[in-house]
């Protein structure tokens, strides 16, 4: 009885002390340590929310860049409420801006939830451009891959490979910052287009109201000067 109790305590201790990501040396781990990048546009309806789940391994660099391109309907607020939650449902970061950039280190392996909330516009939808993904710096290799690599590559080629990987990561980070700067400038362009559309429709509405009121005034004046033939004029 004492032996069984001891085994249960030891097994439960191993479960809670284990990392959320399996070891890379395990045969059936099936881990993919690569760069996952996505970019697309999505329309968020009025007072609505769109959520996405992105899988990430532990010890990765998670990034998210977003920009509100245009608004429709009676929407006049370009801000977007963005939240990112961990696989346990814990809020990691939130932003309420038209253009934003989010970066953090993934501490737990699992599906991270990205939610886009159009809570600032109750009567108009918005279109959002997204660019997000996970970058793993210092790629790990299995024992078998390391043995095969040692047979094929010498120390010089291995050093060149490491340098090329670091260069690729640095170039990607430079591109990411450039993309964010380009989105910041593009926000002003879409804001001008939105204002132009608003001014055009508002001017057309005012012109129609002015013409309609003038026509109604003309009808009223004509009825004031209308005379009945059966009655003599003054």
TrEMBL record:
The chain crosses the membrane at residues 201-221. Residues 49-134 form the GOLD domain. The keyword Transmembrane applies. Pfam families: EMP24_GP25L. Residues 1-17 form the signal peptide. InterPro entries: Emp24-like, GOLD_dom. It is a single-pass type I membrane protein. One of its GO terms (cellular component) is endoplasmic reticulum membrane. Keywords: Endoplasmic reticulum, Membrane, Signal, Transmembrane, Transmembrane helix. It is found in: Endoplasmic reticulum membrane; Membrane. The keyword Transferase does not apply. It comes from the Eukaryota. Belongs to the EMP24/GP25L family. This is GOLD domain-containing protein. It comes from Dicentrarchus labrax (European seabass). The lineage of its organism: Eukaryota, Metazoa, Chordata, Craniata, Vertebrata.
